[in-house]
């Protein structure tokens, strides 16, 4: 697995400190992006948490996912969570080392009481002493939260930095990009009140004894089913919801999101509603199948149109906590379809996330070179090689294309709805469920080039 090293540099370790007004949760930040450009140690918020105990438990849940591998758990993972300040909320995100679980804690305005919330994205230090301190935070005492140092601390700091260097797999970066594409296709499927949510989550099997399963809404709860009946939601690897156990006693409700049930396993999102906060876990379709291989971003990556549109849309994002496709279409003059493709492409560079609760995208800048990982995607790289080798031939009428690989011929067909299919083994196995194959991607590239050439010729006629 290809990976690179990522370095964190913190002014000091994150810690829970005793202060004159009670305890203070001091979260140290590393290098990140802000509206003014890159910052070594940005500061995003200073104030009080409205509900300290659930906030501490939810932060621990995000850290649990960052340190976990639910598939092949013997391999260690430890990547510091990402925090994004969107002006009206703080979002803490993490991704499991196996690329199969994405966690996000949204601390909304109602959960914060203090100074203005800044804008930007960075890593936050989560160390073992901090984790132990967070487990001891109760509801009675006020808890002050500081995300990053203030300006005076940055300018006067002259001590040694706390530095970490960790391996950063490219498939982990691709997983971050794929989750926003997958989640954008989710719909609300069920909502359980607090007591039923606790009962349901505590009834789930543990220790990897269950694989892909299904649940169906039944009154105020969910009941298991052995197949994807109408209305069912896929629950792939129920033991991967273990991080929600951290917040059960604080949960007000459990919301479930997913696509319309199909015959194949699908991803799903599980949101614990907390006072002034939301904690969401998004699960890949199978514990042994990470998000990095889903392929939902490949169509947008393969087209020059989406690349050019993304440059325009990126200027309009402005760290917004809610990005509406219709608003961006009106501002940019692009169609909603082209805006979605541009957002998908920006997602591959870590600039876009998706909030299932609000059914809207949000702007952030991951502190990793996510775009480089996407450019090295094996299927995309193979498709470009086919194009460069002249392996694609468009047949008359344009509905069928022939792709010659060595001595093998694959046919890519386009139906009346524009859906592509291929005669290759990849397509036969997944039927488009994990994105386009390399042959379909190559055909799309050639068709776009041909359409551009025809348009240029027509304009010059």
From TrEMBL:
Residue ranges annotated for the SWIM-type domain, each copy included: 410-448
InterPro entries: Znf_SWIM
Keywords linked to the UniProt accession: Metal-binding, Zinc, Zinc-finger
MF annotations from Gene Ontology: zinc ion binding
Record-linked PROSITE patterns: ZF_SWIM (PS50966)
Name of the protein described by the UniProt record: SWIM zinc finger family protein
Species for this entry: Kitasatospora xanthocidica
């Amino acid at each position: 697995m290809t990976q690179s090293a990522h370095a964190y540099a913190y002014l000091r370790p994150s810690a829970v400190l005793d202060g004159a007004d009670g305890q203070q949760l001091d979260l140290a930040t590393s290098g990140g992006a802000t509206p003014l450009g890159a910052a070594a140690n940005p500061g995003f918020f200073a104030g009080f948490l409205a509900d300290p105990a659930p906030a501490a438990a939810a932060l621990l849940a995000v850290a649990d996912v960052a340190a976990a591998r639910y598939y092949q758990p013997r391999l260690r993972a430890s990547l510091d969570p990402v925090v994004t300040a969107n002006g009206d909320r703080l979002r803490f995100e993490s991704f499991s080392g196996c690329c199969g679980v994405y966690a996000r804690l949204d601390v909304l305005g109602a959960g914060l009481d203090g100074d203005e919330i800044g804008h930007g994205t960075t890593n936050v230090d989560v160390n073992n002493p901090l984790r132990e301190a967070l487990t001891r935070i109760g509801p009675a005492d006020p808890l002050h939260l500081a995300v990053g140092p203030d300006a005076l601390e940055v300018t006067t700091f002259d001590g040694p930095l706390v530095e970490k260097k960790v391996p950063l797999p490219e498939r982990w970066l691709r997983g971050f990009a794929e989750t926003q594409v997958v989640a954008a296709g989710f719909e609300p499927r069920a909502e359980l009140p607090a007591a039923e949510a606790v009962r349901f989550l505590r009834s789930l099997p543990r220790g990897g004894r269950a694989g892909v399963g299904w649940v169906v809404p039944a009154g105020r709860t969910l009941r298991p089913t052995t197949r994807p009946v109408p209305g069912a939601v896929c629950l792939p690897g129920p033991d991967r919801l273990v991080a929600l156990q951290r917040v059960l006693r604080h949960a007000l409700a459990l919301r479930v999101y997913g696509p319309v049930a199909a015959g194949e396993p699908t991803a799903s999102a599980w949101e614990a509603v907390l006072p002034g906060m939301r904690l969401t876990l998004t699960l890949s379709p199978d514990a042994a199948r990470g998000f990095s291989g889903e392929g939902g971003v490949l169509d947008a990556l393969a087209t020059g149109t989406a690349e050019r549109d993304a440059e325009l849309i990126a200027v309009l994002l402005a760290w917004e906590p809610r990005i509406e496709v219709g608003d961006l279409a009106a501002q940019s003059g692009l169609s909603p379809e082209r805006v979605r493709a541009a957002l998908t492409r920006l997602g591959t560079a870590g600039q876009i996330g998706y909030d299932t609760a609000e059914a809207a995208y949000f702007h952030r800048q991951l502190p990793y070179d996510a775009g480089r990982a996407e450019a090295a995607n094996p299927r995309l790289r193979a498709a470009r090689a086919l194009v460069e080798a002249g392996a694609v031939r468009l047949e008359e009428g344009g509905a069928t294309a022939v792709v010659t690989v060595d001595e093998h011929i694959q046919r890519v067909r386009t139906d009346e709805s524009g859906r592509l299919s291929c005669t290759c083994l990849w397509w036969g196995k997944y039927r488009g469920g994990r994105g386009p194959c390399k042959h379909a991607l190559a055909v799309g590239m050639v068709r776009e080039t041909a359409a551009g050439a025809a348009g240029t010729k027509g304009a010059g006629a």
